[in-house]
Amino acid sequence: MANTFDSLIEAGACADVSGWDFSWLEGRAAEERPPWGYARQLADRLSRATASLDIQTGGGEVLAEAKTFPTTAVATESWLPNVAKATRLLHPRGVVVVADPDEPPLPFADEAFDLVTSRHPATIWWEEIAQILRPGGTYFAQHVGPASVFELFEFFLGPQPAARRGRHPDDETAAAQAAGLEIVDVKTSRLRIEIHDVASMVYLLRKVIWWVPGFTVEKYHDRLCDLHDLIQQDGPFIAHSTRHLIEARRPAA
């Protein structure tokens, strides 16, 4: 009974989706990791910074992996359940969590930070980042790349050709340069995702709300049923995520 369509839908619909921890998916879905080890590199940079800002920190899980933080360490987040979770996780570590709508302006003084970071920001405001970086300061982030998980999007939404160019690293580096930043390095990776049951899909679409905007089980019930039958017949649903690691620097005065 545990693998019936209705029971799987219920499992995905009832799972806690707060924060940015995906451990509920263990055994149900899997995604390759980029080869560069973002969390490890982030921790190293934090250990050498004097004032840091992590933008769109989610529930603070990735930032909290660092062993040490600079004397001034701040994180922003817009979604209130994540703000609460990040506060519980990061405040004991000396990181101040600021509720911020992820729209300009960032609520910080000019040249306030020598390190600005982000993992999978939904929006990137390059002019704001350049403004709050000190001369010689660094922006270091892992971004979602172009056409990421489009097999999933298009399964539910149909073809999305106009959106495939979005988040292209060439466009982002050009925007960073236009804001006055120097590009130090860009790395890209394409990664395999396997989704083993429809419960995982419901969980993901409830958690990553911009993948299929307005998703509800009721609205997409028929398509979820199709997905369940497809997985039962052919095995895991396969998609591919794209990521790029970007390092940019504000020129020294």
Walk me through this protein's architecture:
The protein has 253 residues and is α/β, with parallel strands linked by helices. The chain has a single domain, classed as Rossmann fold (3-Layer(aba) Sandwich). The chain contains 8 helices and 8 strands, in the order αβαββαββαβααβααβ. The chain has an 8-stranded mixed β-sheet with strand order 1-7-8-6-5-2-3-4, sandwiched between helices. Helix 4 links the parallel strand 5 and strand 6. Helix 1 runs parallel beside helix 7. The radius of gyration is 19 Å and the shape is globular.
Helix content: 25-40%
Top-tier CATH class = Alpha Beta
Which strand order does the major sheet show? 1-7-8-6-5-2-3-4
Distance between the termini: 66 Å
Beta strands, count? 8
User: Low-confidence stretches at least 5 residues in length (pLDDT < 50)?
Assistant: none
- What's the overall average pLDDT, rounded? 96
What is the ordering of alpha helices and beta strands? HEHEEHEEHEHHEHHE
Keywords: Methyltransferase, Transferase
Pfam families: Methyltransf_11
Protein name: Methyltransferase domain-containing protein
Domain Methyltransferase type: 53-140
